[in-house]
Amino acid sequence: MNDLLRRRFCLALLGLSVVLISAGRAVAPAEADAKEIERLVGQLVEGKTKEREEARRRLEAVGRAALPALRKIAEDPKGDPDRRLRAALVARSIVEKMFREVRRFEGHTGAVRYLALSPDGKRLLSASGWPQGDNTLRYWDIATGKEIHTLRGHSALIETVAISPDGKWGLSSGYDRTVRLWDLSNGKEQKRFQGHTDNVYSVVFLPDGKRFLSASQNLVRLWDVKSGKELQQFKGHRQNVVHVAVSPDGKRCVSASSDLTARIWDVDSGKELLCLKGHTAMVHAVAFSPDGKRVASASYDRTVRLWDAGTGKELRRLTGHTNGVRGVAFSPDGKRLATASEDQTVRLWDVETGKELHSYVGHKQMVTGVAFCPDNEYIVSGGGGHRYGRPEGDFTLRLWGAPDLDRPAPRK
Asked: How confident is residue 406, by pLDDT bands cut at 50, 70 and 90?
């Protein structure tokens, strides 16, 4: 193999490995014609020029189902270098298309501060706030990217949103010191929760849908949705609590604070169970894994850290972002993490190894919110705005492909 071909081969495999770190041994979906795929791969690596080009086009059209057969050849250390290169280039092209931007949601006239997905993955709720927000919530159809409702009522920047477990209700909070409950079927405000004396930075429903948590000043508070009464306060943080997340069983919550810590609490008693120390700057976002055994924390120190939710031990540190990390979310199966950063990227990570799987580039300004879709195949991100006050910006939400290549493609 000459030097030019060798360099192309190395670059192809390098590019393929970056996006296929989690690929493992995927198998083709049952509906795919495995024999036809094998025939096309054979034509790609052994055929004449025109035959190879036709095979390339058809394999790229087949997409994900063709990856196992292509990787089998591309990753064979004893295989012919020319054959390996051809297979690697086509596999890389397929994967790049799978991880591209799928849809853009446009309508906000200020920075997107936070976002939440409905449990069925069909709807998206976004909030516009710091640094230059339009003070609205917007409710979107994921499949079309069209706006369903604009929710108005907050008199200042909105910090956060949440959707109830049944998908019928939305919560929002912000700089006007209120928490508001919305009927998502019509976009109307149904209730206002008052009692906070400063900005309310975070809200989240408990799994029962009857209670929610809020974060303001150095407190986490537990509320009853129906009565509007405050039930409990969680005291321990020394500075502002800026984010709160709840465990899947609803028995614990975790909070993130400017005091450089994250803390795990018992929801019913308000007792602090663990204090997670290690970050060297403000902890901005936290999340429980789907099994409740781990916590992820994202910080302005540019790292994401994984913790044992039972012992408080730091398990792993994810590095790669070049600016503060503002959002973090586990995949539905708990195997991957998505992070959002002021470096204008969204990144995908392998939880077990800590390796970066993919970096999504497209946002023109900071990215502040990120969430996985329930099907484990897509992520949504949002952000925009300038920290130092310039009014123009990229105020979009974006849907990205994020397939788990360890699994066959889901049936449509």
From this structure: confident
Q: How far apart are CA 78 and CA 29, in angstroms?
A: 28
- What fold characterizes domain 102-401? Methylamine Dehydrogenase; Chain H (2.130.10)
- Here the tokens at position 373 are 């879709």
So what's the pLDDT on residue 214?
A: 98
Residue-level pLDDT at 133: 85
pLDDT of the residue at 132: 79
Residue scoring higher pLDDT (40 or 412)? 40
Q: In what order do the strands lie in the sheet with 188-193?
A: 158-163, 169-174, 179-183, 188-193
Measured CA to CA, the distance from residue 306 to residue 296 in angstroms comes to: 5
270 pLDDT more than 90: yes
Question: Tell me: the pLDDT tens digits for 340-388?
Answer: 999 999 999 999 999 999 999 999 999 999 999 999 999 999 998 766 6
Residue ranges per structural domain of the chain: 3-98, 102-401
